[in-house]
Amino acid sequence: MNKQKFSYIVIGVVLLAIGFNSIGKETFSLERRGQNIIRFHVLANSDSPEDQQLKIKVRDKVIAYVSDVLEGLENVDETREALKNNMDNIQSIARQEVIDNGFDFNVAVNLGEHVFPTKRYGNVIFPAGNYEALRVIIGEGYGQNWWCVMFPPLCFVDVKHGLTDEKTKQYLKEALSEEEYDTIYTNNDNQQFPLQLKSKVFEVIKESRVKLDERLAWLF
User: Fold this and answer.
1) Are residues 27 and 48 in the same domain?
2) H helix intervals, the chain
3) pLDDT, tens digit, for every residue of 95-138?
4) Number of domains composing the chain
5) Residue 26 falls within a domain, yes or no?
6) Which chain regions cross the lipid bilayer (predicted)?
7) Which of 41, 44, 101, 215 has its CB surrounded by the most CB atoms within 10 Å?
């Protein structure tokens, strides 16, 4: 084996090691991101204007009730337990709102883990992945859903013009680890590393790894 080939191999091994290490850390971070978050989803019966309007009314009733239930709770475990203990009440409140508006849809309420796509909430990005969620399903649940974050309690914080206020940032910092906070939060002044850019960097690393594998195979 000549010196040039040996140099290629050494460089390739070093880059692969760096790539694997970085990708491993990123994967670990992304796998953990939903552990301290509980989302809230309301699924409408259909996309008809009437069903979508009903969804909003049910949302308002449930949030009004749950905000009192969760007041003063400081962590995700307490929040989860409180929600579990109030599932029947939440279902009854949602169902009564449906009836009060002249509909006869069934309402299902569940708390569990679901797969979600990447979503922006004001100035916060929640990457695609598994998240625990309280779901209120009206009728068939085929319509567009409305969502917010129940813990940290962003559902109860006013989010305007795509920006989160200082209280929202504080909620996130208190509830999440520094790593989780950095993963989901993007700042308009770009002082923090945007998630989209991070994802692109690791995409490039993965592509480079494939090319290096091909080059090493050719060298041997």
Assistant:
1) no
2) 3-32, 49-70, 76-85, 87-100, 166-175, 178-184, 195-219
3) 999 999 999 999 999 999 988 888 876 667 778 888 999 999 99
4) 2
5) yes
6) 6-23
7) 44
User: Is the peptide bond between 152 and the residue preceding it cis, with omega within 30 degrees of 0?
Assistant: yes
Residue 204 has pLDDT above 50, yes or no: no
Is 63 found in the same domain as 26?
no
Please indicate, yes or no, whether residues 26 and 84 belong to a single structural domain of this protein.
no
- CB-based contacts of 190-197 (< 8 A; 24+ apart in sequence): 195/125, 195/127, 196/125
DSSP three-state, residue 104: coil
Which range (24-38, 76-90, 203-217) has the least confidence?
203-217
d(CA 50, CA 117): 26
On the CB side of 70, CA atoms within 13 Å amount to 26
CB atoms inside a 10 Å sphere around CB 104:
8
Same domain, 150 and 63: yes
Alpha carbon of 24 to those of 16, 19, 204, 211: distances in Å?
A: 12, 8, 14, 19
Q: Which domain holds residue 125?
A: 37-175
